[in-house]
Amino acid sequence: MASWEKQLAHLEEKIKELEIFAREQNIDLSGEIKALQEKAKKIKGEQDQDIAISPWQRVKLARNMERPTTLDYIGMICEDFVELHGDRLFSDDPAIIAGIARLGEQPVTVIGHQKGRSTKDNIARNFGMPHPEGYRKALRLMEQANKFNRPIITFIDTPGAYPGLGAEERGQGEAIARNLREMSGLKVPIIVTVTGEGGSGGALALAVGDWVGMFENAVYSVISPEGCASILWKDPGKAERAAESLKLTAEDLKKAGVIDAIIEEPEGGCHLDPKEMGKRLGEHLEEIVPYLQKMDPSSLLERRWERIEKIGVWTQETQTQKKVSQ
After folding, report:
1. Is residue 17's pLDDT more than 90?
2. What are the C-alpha distances in Å from 80 to residues 74, 88, 239, 277?
3. Range of the domain at 113
């Protein structure tokens, strides 16, 4: 935890203590409480300013280990969650959480990347980097949701798909490609939320949706800033420069039409007020899910394809280059 975060946490704890003491002793401490609240507000405002001007700061916030995980959000917005395991081919992958639950009165299938909170937990979760069996588990549950007409909710938070030898041997690329193909044709609503890191195909394999929302301090890109800097400048130390060029922030992606909505985080980031972030996410989903659920399957598929086809820019120069290459 950064020094400013510790200071802020101390102030908020002090405010709570004073409020309780004032209530129990029936005395007026409103002046002291207000002064502490103003000080906390100033610290949050200074951090927000720093974050707003730097995509690299957004990257670091998106990677903060204190940010709520998929399991945290499921616990805050869903009821009766039942986790399901395994891909029925090789094994279970703890880097992806998947199961069925209720969002209000609506049965849903929930799937998301899962990082750890400690080093031990992160190792167990493979730092949120799925193997092929994770994507096949996700697809198995998506097909089940399609069969029973349940909306699908996915949470994206991964540096990318695991690039290890075993994962490649078991068909990592094929598993991701199959998810992209099958998700594009499912006849139930798919609602995607990028909550932290959205890394390359590892993220996209759960992100072909009818509605894509993104947290204010999340990032979503074809490659990490470090990877981009290593390729372009042979220097991963230039990651901050790469982050500027990649246009990976929620604001950039909203302008480009890649995402549909930006979900505002509490001041300083969602890790400072997880309950408030869960409330905002729940309200967002409770609005979007019924809207998409009302559409008939043919209209839903048509809208999804139109959304996918709008991503990117087609220019005369592109056309000319294509004709020359042919």
Report:
1. no
2. 10, 24, 42, 20
3. 65-310
